[in-house]
User: Which sequence fits this backbone?
């Protein structure tokens, strides 16, 4: 009998990874932060670097479409482990979705996968303190509350009441996007956050790249302490679920296109004395209501029309705070582009892998001017399913692509360009191995600065260490002007990133231009 007990204890040690935790309670990290601060980026970083940890992920999205599950790629990851994926959408989980949210938490606790930790990403408009009671009632221990803050835009949103509530009871603040802010902005943000959080730890970051154990309490998890041991149990992601809400709104006669919208209750602004005020940066009224609109289409979108019409409308849309989703472009159908917009300093469409299902586009825009958001969706509807005339336009684009490609090839700072996807030009800046600078750092920075100017739209494809930029020059473009802008931005980017490195003679000629 003693031998059986020893065997059972050994099996429990091997298979029940939470056996050492107090009462077997699962730990949880609650991730909060305003729209566009980088919460989903943090989750993707944790999942990509989780090692042997089995993580459950619950995402609360302020939209009718669960776009964050698409950005996290949870459907594909879960399918590999025979896990189902459903979505928690439409507003604050603790308000409109309290019952289903509790059910999702209970399913995670009861899961046979025996997760090591739960990650909960709140909506950018949710109050995190309302989640605590729900976690406790199902037996989940809240280890850490992490707030992700955009260093560059903190001063613009600091008077929002919802932002103050998100910072009230946090244990850690990730001051993200420090690469987009000046040193004075970062220093001022740290002072503000120290006052508002009562002295919570503030950590600077870029793309939320921080050590795993900084945001997950790994002290009691055997899987983390024995990460180098040979383990036959794979790491598991569970983007846990609620039933998906049906789309509301007209389809405008196109069965492949869905439009939906939603409005959350008014969220008042408050100044230091608790009185309502108006934010001059965003022009927010005293009683502000945030709205979201969603666009879905199975038909590919024209990249040419997207960059000439949609992006212009996005940058000019009054009250737009956030845009994100996945895109399928007519000119590059095999690539699945992740689109992010959170102000002019963050405009990108990056593809890291091909489609694993039927290609489609799904975009969510969040702002406080409902009519302006509707106008933006109308612009996208105009190009949905539209195929530009390929005869003359394609010939011009090919001619422009070859002209631009020759200019890139003559500049030693750039890799040899490619026209294998003509009329797209594939190019990128060379990395600097001797300086420890990867091409992804240089080309990624080049893309963000160029896109932020609003004259040119660069997309990117990532494969391992290779980071390529893509440019489409349509009939309204000027290849000479495009090259001149990219050349000047490249000089600024290289100068900034390489300024702390002593140049090697072998690289000096190629980097000084």
Assistant:
């Amino acid at each position: 009998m003693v031998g059986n007990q020893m065997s059972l204890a050994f099996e429990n040690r091997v298979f029940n990874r939470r056996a050492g935790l107090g009462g077997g309670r699962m730990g949880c990290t609650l991730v909060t932060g305003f729209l566009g601060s980088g919460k989903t980026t943090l989750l993707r970083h944790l999942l990509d670097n989780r090692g042997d940890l089995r993580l459950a992920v619950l995402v609360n999205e302020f939209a009718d479409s669960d776009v964050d599950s698409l950005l996290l790629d949870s459907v594909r990851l879960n399918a590999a482990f025979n896990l189902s994926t459903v979505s928690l959408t439409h507003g604050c989980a603790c308000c409109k979705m309290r019952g289903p949210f509790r059910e999702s938490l209970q399913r995670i606790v009861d899961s046979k996968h025996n997760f090591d930790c739960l990650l909960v990403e709140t909506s950018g408009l949710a109050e995190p303190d309302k989640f605590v009671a729900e976690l406790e009632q199902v037996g989940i221990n809240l280890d850490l509350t992490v707030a992700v803050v955009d260093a560059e835009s903190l001063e613009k949103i600091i008077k929002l009441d919802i932002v103050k509530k998100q910072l009230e009871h946090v244990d850690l603040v990730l001051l993200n996007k420090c690469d987009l802010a000046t040193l004075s902005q970062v220093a001022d943000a740290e002072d503000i956050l120290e006052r508002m959080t009562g002295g919570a730890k503030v950590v600077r970051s870029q793309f939320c790249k921080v050590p795993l154990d900084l945001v997950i309490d790994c002290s009691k998890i055997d899987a983390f302490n024995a990460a180098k041991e040979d383990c036959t149990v794979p790491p598991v992601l569970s983007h846990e679920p609620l039933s998906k809400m049906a789309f509301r709104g007209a389809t405008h006669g196109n069965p492949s296109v869905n439009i939906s919208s939603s409005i959350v209750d008014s969220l008042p602004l408050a100044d230091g004395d608790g009185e309502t005020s108006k934010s001059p940066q965003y022009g927010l009224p005293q009683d502000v209501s945030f709205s979201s609109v969603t666009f879905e289409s199975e038909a590919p979108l024209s990249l040419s029309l997207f960059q000439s019409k949609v992006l212009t409308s996005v940058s000019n849309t009054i009250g737009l705070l956030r845009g994100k989703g996945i895109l399928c472009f007519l000119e590059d159908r095999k690539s699945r582009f992740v689109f992010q917009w959170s102000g002019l300093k963050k405009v990108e469409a990056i593809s890291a892998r091909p489609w694993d299902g039927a290609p489609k586009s799904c975009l969510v825009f969040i702002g406080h001017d409902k009519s302006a958001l509707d106008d933006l969706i109308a612009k996208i509807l105009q190009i949905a399913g539209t195929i530009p005339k390929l005869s003359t336009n394609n010939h011009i684009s090919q001619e422009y692509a070859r002209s631009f490609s020759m200019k890139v090839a003559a500049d030693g700072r750039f890799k040899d360009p490619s026209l294998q996807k003509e009329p797209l030009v594939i190019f990128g800046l060379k990395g600097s191995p001797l300086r420890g600078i990867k091409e992804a750092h240089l080309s990624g920075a080049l893309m963000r600065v160029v896109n932020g100017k609003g004259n040119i739209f660069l997309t990117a494809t990532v494969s391992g260490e290779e980071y390529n930029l893509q440019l489409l020059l349509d009939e309204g473009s000027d290849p000479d002007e495009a090259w001149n802008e990219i050349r000047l931005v490249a000089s600024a980017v290289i100068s900034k990133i390489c300024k702390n490195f002593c140049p090697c003679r072998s690289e000096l000629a190629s980097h000084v231009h």
